[in-house]
Amino acid sequence: MKRKYRNTPVVIDGVRFDSVREANRWGFLQALQRLNKISQLERQVKYVLAPSVKFAGEKRAKTALRYFADFRYVDSTGETVVEDAKGRETEAFRIKRHLMKSVHGIDVRLS
User: Fold this and answer.
1) Which value, in Å, is the radius of gyration of the alpha carbons in the chain?
2) What is the residue range of 46's domain?
């Protein structure tokens, strides 16, 4: 079965990545961290974009809207950088990127 965005999941050193692009970027960022060009490298960082809500007539509350950033790190200038490894910008990503800026004041970079 073809994947929606034609990405190929890959496992490297026991770590699962959603795409080869994401795995390659992780390797590059790890190299930058070893060279002390960046610090505090993390992956799959969760942000809440909207809290859980319960709609009238529904039995259960809908879960919070979340965004999982592929990477977060601090660059050499001390700025916290949030990145997403995407081959192309999807409509869902544009919405989440917009919400990240409006809710958290964070610009999400594409890598």
Assistant:
1) 16
2) 38-110
pLDDT tens-digit readout, 60-74: 999 999 999 999 999
Q: How many domains does the chain have?
A: 1
Determine the length of the chain. 111
Is residue 43 within 8 Å of residue 70, measured between CB atoms?
yes
Residue 85 CA, chain-centre distance (Å), reads 7
Specify the pTM. 0.86
Q: Where are the alpha helices (DSSP H) in the chain?
A: 20-34, 91-99
Does 49 reside within a domain? yes
Question: Positive or negative, the Cα torsion across 20, 22, 25, 29?
Answer: negative
Tokens of 58: 């529904």
Counting other chains too, the contacts that 17-20 makes at CB distance below 8 Å and 24 or more residues apart are 19/85, 19/87
